[in-house]
Amino acid sequence: MVEIEQARQVAKALHAANHLVLQLDLRAIGGSALTTTAEVPKDRAISDRKRGIPVTYVPGRNLIFLSLAAAHAEVVGTSIIYFGANILDYSGYPDCRPGFIRAFEAAVNEGTKAGTEGRMLQVRAPLLMCTKAEIIRQGIELGVPFELTHSCYDPVGPLACGRCDSCLIRREGFAKAGVADPIAYAIP
């Protein structure tokens, strides 16, 4: 999968001490255009992207990912998970909201050995209230290798499609930040 390979490259470029990849196939659950053969919406207007929960919502995805991150954090003895959720430039996903993050934190601290022993886990979402342009500007300041990143919902081989919600949000963010997007798109 493109996402896993790009994540490996980003971790290597940033000299991550540990990059754990778990085999997890959410296609078995289904329920989303990202986990089934349902068509990924293309070329949606901003007003359409802000209305309702789109078919690209994956049921329980962030709950599952954060649960796995919490289990790993407990094993390695860390107390903070950083979560890249964003509520301003997102496509309507309910698991990218502050209430979800607070509820997850409460549940994980109630339901883990670490939590019951007073070693509370925190979930930090530093990008939650940032626009995509702000995220890109901050990433440039921090040296994020954007040329290695991937966010497309419907890649065409190794290329981003350029038309799905995620590509449109990314492209708009780079344009508003006044920076050229360094990745290639199938549709320029």
Describe the structure in your own words:
The chain is mainly alpha-helical. The chain has a single domain, classed as Rossmann fold, CATH 3.40.50.620. The chain is built from 7 helices and 2 strands; from the N terminus they run H-H-H-E-H-H-E-H-H. It has helices at 2-13, 46-49, 61-76, 98-110, 113-116, 132-142, 165-177, and strands at residues 80-82, 122-124. Strands 1-2 form a two-stranded parallel sheet.
Write the layout of secondary structure elements.
Layout: H1 2-13, H2 46-49, H3 61-76, E1 80-82, H4 98-110, H5 113-116, E2 122-124, H6 132-142, H7 165-177
CATH homology group: HUPs
Count up the domains.
1
Distance from first to last alpha carbon:
22 Å
The count of β-strands is: 2
Structure classification: mainly alpha
The assigned CATH architecture is: 3-Layer(aba) Sandwich
Cα shape: globular
Question: Under CATH, the topology is which?
Answer: Rossmann fold
What's this, in brief?
The protein is mainly α and 188 residues long. Helices cover 39% and strands 3% of the residues. The two termini are 22 Å apart.
Spell out the key features of this protein.
single chain, 188 residues, mainly alpha, Rossmann fold, two-stranded parallel sheet, 7 helices, 2 strands, 39% helix, globular
